[in-house]
Amino acid sequence: MGIAVNLVTYLIGTMHLPSATSANIVTDFMGTSFLLCLLGRFVADAFLAFYLIALGTGAIKSSVSGFGSDQFDENHKEKAQMTYFLNRCLDKAALVAEGDFKVVSGSAPTPNPWRLCSVTRIEEGMARSLPVWATTIMFWTTYAQMITFSVEQASTMERSIGSFQIPAESLTVFFVAAILITLAVYDCLVMPFWKTWKGTPGFTHFQRTAIGLALSTLGMAAAVMAEKKRLAVAEKVGRNTQTLAIRVYLLIPQFFLVGAGEAFIYTGQLDFFITQSPRGMKTMSTGLFLTTLSLGFFVSSFLVSVINAVTAISRSQGWLADDINHGRLDYFYGLLSMLGFINFGVFMVCAVWYSLRRRGIVPLRGLVVMGFLMPRKVVEFWGFSWNLVLS
Predict the structure, then answer these.
(1) Residues 316/327, Cβ–Cβ less than 8 Å
(2) What are the Cα distances from residue 22, in Å, to 5, 78, 313?
(3) For residue 158, what are the β-bridge partners?
(4) How far apart, in Å, are the Cα atoms of 55 and each of 41, 60, 65?
(5) Where does the sequence pass through the membrane (predicted)?
(6) Residue among 34, 40, 23 nearest 292 (CA)
(7) Residue 328: how many CA atoms within 13 Å on its side-chain side?
(8) What is the pTM of this model?
(9) Tens digits of per-residue pLDDT, 319-341?
(10) Positive or negative: CA dihedral 44, 48, 54, 59
């Protein structure tokens, strides 16, 4: 995360790359990082994992100690503190849970392999969850803007507190604050109230995911309004001033809303993929969940490239100009807000379809007929959909 939020500033300020190109490099980097989680989960289930752990351990141990010790100034009092850095005191042994190994009489315990799952169980646990999986990608596309263009927005705004200048990249602290506050309120207030009212310990995975998608859409709407105000100030000064006379705190709502959305959607997605997958494929399901992060960043890169190419035809620099003071980032945020709204509706349909399929009530063809070919039933369908997801 530290690399990602600083990389966009480095690419623009030090490498002098265009704004859109810098954003795409960051989102491609993040997308590739999370895409490899699926490969990592696959490898983790093979015995091969021990050898990769050994290789990784050797690479880390030979590098990180020297890197860490280089951070201490040998000509300063920090040198005496270096010995504390070199003391690995919290190492713990991993515990093997019951059922992780299969014991056969007369032979050594062997790992319980995920690949012994039947095709039927894989289809039930994985294929049916793909529509829900696909509709959560859009959240991470929205999230990608918070560590790219939103950081660039902050770099053009007034960020001083007295003589101290807040780094633009530090605005992501509101992500962390939003997550901590949201989870604290949810655990301490919402869950007890929900248990008293509904008799269940908190929201279901679909409810949390729906809330996360809704908050991210609201976050993009807040980003549109904030960018319109920032551009209005930039226009008054000729769009050429590096630091605009507008406080960076204007960006807090978009960071906070998307951060709060992450608290819900991350836990909701993780709960969904773990609880709905076959027992032997839980690690693979977690890897599948993490690919939504990867694809979200890649979708962001795709949208930026397309928008940059299309809008530059009608405008001199397009929506995503090299200098955002000369672009229309608010239009891009507005597009993401509309896509988020549409995606939320699609998620509701997919969630209802998944729930109905699990209960064996209505096939997909029946949903299509009921929802789209019978006008009088449309309102009833959406009301039933919402109640089903909330139940």
Answers:
(1) no
(2) 11, 36, 21
(3) 247
(4) 17, 9, 16
(5) 33-53, 130-151, 171-194, 206-226, 246-266, 287-311, 331-356
(6) 34
(7) 14
(8) 0.70
(9) 888 888 888 889 999 999 999 99
(10) negative
Mean pLDDT of 240-266: 88
Picking from 326, 335, 341, 301, the residue whose alpha carbon sits closest to that of residue 223 is: 335
Q: Are 211 and 253 in contact (CB under 8 A)?
A: no
Average pLDDT over residues 86-105: 49
Q: Where are the domains of the chain?
A: 2-42+128-360, 362-391
| Nearest CA among 198, 136, 133, 123 for reference residue 357 | 123
Longest dimension (CA), the chain: 82
Fold of 2-42+128-360: Growth Hormone; Chain: A; (1.20.1250)
